[in-house]
Design a protein that fits this description.
Keywords: DNA-binding, Transcription, Transcription regulation. InterPro entries: HTH_MarR-typ, WH-like_DNA-bd_sf, WH_DNA-bd_sf. The protein is mainly alpha-helical. Helix content is 59%, strand content 7%. Strands 1-2 form a two-stranded antiparallel sheet. α1 packs across α6, α2 (41-51) crosses α5 (103-113) and α3 (58-65) crosses α4 (69-81).
């Protein structure tokens, strides 16, 4: 089924625009809430992804977080300089770099992980449990391109 055509397409009412605007609002809210920790929402994504074992290499992180490899390298440089992250070359394949968190990085991950739910809950405060579940289902369907019901 095609939902858009040349006549009914309006940029500010398109799904792409609304998703992008939603993402930007959440990122701005998170950046503000994380300011005292000295990290951005993107950096928090890196720290939490490594802390939770969702990605172990820069390439895995780039794919998971949809961040280009150049920006990822710069973020990892900064996080390493701050003393939150370590990089170690693989013994099996010198091209592969494994990421880890320092003790300070783990402490930062613990503190940051409590901030994101608060920020998201503020944005979702007018949603019922049913609406929240439906939003999650629809977003998963949109991302997958399949029906997740």
């Amino acid at each position: 089924m095609e939902h858009y055509n040349k006549k009914n397409f309006t940029v500010t009412q398109s799904i792409g625009f609304m998703l992008s605007k939603s993402r930007n609002l959440v990122a701005a809210d998170l950046d503000s809430a994380l300011k005292d920790l000295g990290i951005t929402s993107q950096q928090m994504g890196v720290i939490l992804s490594v802390a939770r074992g969702l990605a172990q290499t820069p390439l895995e992180l780039s794919r998971l977080l949809a961040i280009d490899t150049g920006l990822m390298t710069r973020m990892l440089d900064k996080l390493e300089l701050q003393g939150w992250l370590t990089r170690r070359r693989s013994d099996q394949d010198r091209r592969v770099i494994h990421l880890g968190l320092t003790r300070a990085g783990h402490a930062l991950a613990e503190e940051a992980s409590g901030i994101a739910p608060q920020v998201l809950n503020r944005r979702l405060r007018h949603f019922s449990k049913t609406e929240f579940a439906e939003l999650q289902r629809l977003l998963a369907k949109f991302i997958d391109g399949t029906d997740s019901s």
